[in-house]
Amino acid sequence: MDIRKTAVIGAGTMGNGIAQVFAHKGTPVILVDVEQAFLDRGMKAIRKNLGRLVKKEKLASDEMEEIVGRIKPTLRMEDAGEADLVVEAATENVTVKKKIFTDLDAVLPEASLLTSNTSSISITELGAVTKRPDRVAGMHFMNPVPVMALVEVVRGLETSEETMNAVIQASKDLDKAPVVVDDSPGFVSNRVLLPMINEAAFTLMEGVATKEAIDDVMRLGMRHPMGPLALADLIGLDVCLSILNVLHDGFGDPKYRPCPILKRMVAAGHLGKKTGRGFYTYDS
């Protein structure tokens, strides 16, 4: 399938990163969000990221402007109807995502593919609210999107081989490494990662070690580039909690029970780097 134009729904950290990589590879992108402030913030982030490449002389200034020029920010969901491939990257909330999928299904041409960047929510469940479940798949990018190679390509119950092949090829065209997984709570990445983060939070809560010590053990002993608590701050503690809830509800297994300290921090609005405070404190 020829992907001539894409749409990205959500201009947050993941959405603007996805829009950037498509535009960088020459594909026009429609970037949709519900508030102009969100679009402005997303476009500013894209310019900042590309600006770093210009400073490192990995990208010319005129090339940067061409890339930014391929991205059309809009508040109108109907504008996504021009796309051959849509990547939904809205908040990790199943009700919100189902509404977006229903709206997109109504405006997209019959042949268009509808994918979600969800990190844990069922692709089968999202596809079921559309009239095209065979053309719905997961396209789970990693953060930061322009840097990380992996894309988890998630096969829903009704996803066709044609759709899977098209999403795999679209990922390769972005110079990403697609890995196919079946639809299951948390897929592979977060089913393995989030229990580690959760256990690190329990270890901290129980006073076994300081946050710095826990992170140092995993960095220095397991050669992780970042400790689990610092990584949780980068992901967003609200996102971590949401994924753990999906795992806990989906499997009904108490081993996925979210750590109480994580729940308290989210309730207090301490969500990690994006709010300036999580397990660690950050400069604005």
Describe this structure in words.
There is one protein chain. 47% of the residues lie in helices and 13% in strands. By secondary structure, it is α/β, with parallel strands linked by helices. The protein folds into two domains: 6-182, NAD(P)-binding Rossmann-like Domain (Rossmann fold); 191-274, N-(1-d-carboxylethyl)-l-norvaline Dehydrogenase, domain 2. Strands 3-2-1-4-5-6-7-8 form an eight-stranded mixed β-sheet, sandwiched between helices. Helix 1 packs across helix 2 (36-55) and helix 7 (189-205) packs across helix 10. It is globular and about 55 Å long.
The residue ranges in which pLDDT falls below 50 over 5 or more consecutive positions are none
CATH fold label of the largest domain: Rossmann fold
Biggest sheet layout? 8 strands, mixed
Broad shape: globular
Which sequence of strands runs across the widest sheet? 3-2-1-4-5-6-7-8
Give the radius of gyration.
19 Å
Number of structural domains: 2
N-to-C CA distance: 43 Å
